[in-house]
Write a structure and sequence with these properties.
This protein has 183 residues and is mainly alpha-helical. 51% of the residues lie in helices and 9% in strands. The chain contains eight helices and five strands, in the order βαββαβαβααααα. A hairpin with a 2-residue loop joins strand 2 and strand 3. Helix 5 packs antiparallel against helix 6 and helix 6 crosses helix 8.
Length: 183
């Protein structure tokens, strides 16, 4: 009687197959062109993947696969890299996707502008209290970067729309009437 050998392949090979099988971003559902592989919230680049030479079988891969996510580059940056605490970038992105008719590219532009502005404000040690009252674009005018000032103002106005939508959404969620199954 012969013992059947379990087929084992390097983890990197399973990951290449996994990467090629993914068609949409796990967060925004955008059709994937270029892909970012993420494991446990950390981006794993292609060099690191090529070094994953541990031999595993199909059963082990089925368990391991649950730890991997395929994201578009945009979502990979947003969800895995350090965020500024000046703006709710993830909430803003989701608001733009869910409540506007903007294309993915336009959403990306607004989000990138706010991320850059948040980084700039952090470098300048600008008080976060300026974000709480009045008009954001007017309050931040003296500290806006000298290049593309209008682009930052437009992004800030969209962010104000997001901020004014938040309390409304919270109120609507709380005001949902209880529904009886009988009716």
């Amino acid at each position: 009687m012969t013992v059947q050998q379990v087929k084992r392949r390097p983890l990197s090979r399973y990951l290449k197959d996994f990467k090629h099988s993914q068609t949409h971003c796990a967060h925004c559902q955008k059709l994937l062109d270029r892909i970012t592989l993420v494991r446990a919230g950390e981006i794993v680049n292609k060099i690191a993947i090529s070094r994953l030479d541990t031999l595993i079988d199909d059963e082990t891969w089925q368990r391991e696969q649950q730890n991997w996510v395929a994201l578009c580059r945009f979502c990979g940056d947003l969800h895995c890299k350090t965020q500024s605490d000046y703006f709710d970038i993830l909430g803003f992105k989701q608001y733009l996707f869910d409540h506007t008719d903007m294309s993915h590219g336009t959403v990306r532009e607004y989000v990138v502008r706010l991320r850059r502005l948040g980084a700039h404000l952090n470098e300048q040690h600008i008080s976060r209290s300026l974000l709480k009252e009045g008009y954001l674009d007017e309050n931040l005018e003296p500290w806006l970067p000298t290049t593309s000032t209008n682009n930052y103002r437009i992004a800030l106005r969209k962010y104000v729309q997001f901020q004014s939508w938040q309390p409304l959404a919270d109120t609507q969620a709380l005001a949902q009437p209880e529904v009886c199954d009988i009716y």
